[in-house]
Amino acid sequence: MINVIDLPPKIPIFPLSGVLLLPRTRLPLNVFEPRYLTMLDDALKTDHRMIGMVQPREIPGNTGEMALQHIGCAGRVTSFSETEDGRYLITLSGISRFRLRDLEDGFHPYINAAVDWSSFTADKGAQDVDHRFDRPHFLKTLSRYFTATSLSTDWESLKEADEELLINSLSMLCPFDPEEKQALLEAPNLANRRETLVTLMEFTLAGDLGEDPIQ
């Protein structure tokens, strides 16, 4: 865990569409663009070793300038290796969501941003609990969704998985579009994220199979 006072006021930003990081989860990344190799080198020199994952967003009439979602999630580099062809294979461990304040111009080839952590103090606390979680019903919906989308998993592991790890991992792994991923990120708590996740799976089933959403 990391204390609130340890959270830096500025972090480097890694914009990736459709990629979701959540607190207390792990995200493997394959870093190969020169500017992000530089970003990682610089992040590893800091005490916090943190990188902010933020999705780009579309703006009507945008002139090509970088536009980002206002909320992202920061992760600490907890695993790092370099390949023979110069790529970095890293793992980010999710620490906390943040709100973007200002994108900073400078000499770096990547984005640095001033961020505000104050809206997400619960991210740094104990594991979140969904007191309304109905595992059998959830797994039934999930099974139908996986069948419809030709996904596979270890069902025995899912039956035993901790509810926060289960809901957050599925939110990260399921092939939702970027706006849907953002909705999962911005869910206030685990129960809201689970409700959003189920709704997205049901909409997929309704669209692909011509079914009515499950009640």
Folded structure, characterized:
The protein is of the alpha+beta class and 215 residues long. It folds into two domains: 4-124, LON domain-like (Archaeosine Trna-guanine Transglycosylase, Chain: A, domain 4), CATH 2.30.130; 135-209. Helices cover 33% and strands 24% of the residues. It has six helices and six strands. The longest helix is centred in the C-terminal third of the chain and has 20 residues, at 190-209. The mean pLDDT is 89.
Q: What's this model, at a glance?
A:
InterPro entries: Lon_prtase_N (IPR003111), Lon_prtase_N_sf (IPR046336), PUA-like_sf (IPR015947). With 215 residues, the chain is an alpha+beta fold.
Main β sheet profile: 5 strands, mixed, barrel
CATH class categorisation of the largest domain: Mainly Beta
Roughly how many Å is the radius of gyration?
18 Å
Total strand count, please?
6
Structural class: alpha+beta
Tell me what the CATH architecture of the largest domain is: Roll
Distance from first to last alpha carbon = 38 Å
Architecture blueprint of SSEs:
Blueprint: E1 10-15, E2 26-31, H1 34-44, E3 50-54, E4 71-82, E5 88-104, E6 111-116, H2 135-149, H3 155-160, H4 163-173, H5 178-186, H6 190-209
Parallel strand pairs: 1-3
Antiparallel strand pairs: 1-6, 2-5, 3-4, 4-5, 5-6
Helix pairs in contact: 2-6, 4-6, 5-6
InterPro entries: Lon_prtase_N (IPR003111), Lon_prtase_N_sf (IPR046336), PUA-like_sf (IPR015947)
Keywords: Hydrolase, Protease
GO molecular function: peptidase activity
